[in-house]
Write a structure and sequence with these properties.
0% helix; 5-stranded antiparallel sheet; mainly beta
């Protein structure tokens, strides 16, 4: 199950940076929304969630498993 969340976040892979929001989170991952199209499938990323609904900043690591670059399907 996923929990809804609206948290500002920054993702980077030591080469590229993307700013956006995390809209939901689960034990297996997060949904990070951004207009910055800098990552590819299988990129390892570091995600920093800003202080807000979670109560304190959070740093997590992950791998990009899905991308949606079609503007018709936000």
């Amino acid at each position: 199950p996923r929990a809804s969340l609206s948290e500002q976040a920054i993702a980077h892979n030591d080469q590229q940076v993307a700013r956006g929001r995390v809209s939901n989170i689960s034990l297996s991952g997060v949904f990070f929304e951004t207009d910055d199209k800098v990552f590819q499938i299988n990129d390892e990323v570091k995600l920093t969630l800003k202080q807000g609904g979670l109560g304190k900043p959070m740093n997590i690591r992950g791998v990009v498993v899905r991308l949606n670059r079609d503007d018709r399907f936000p």
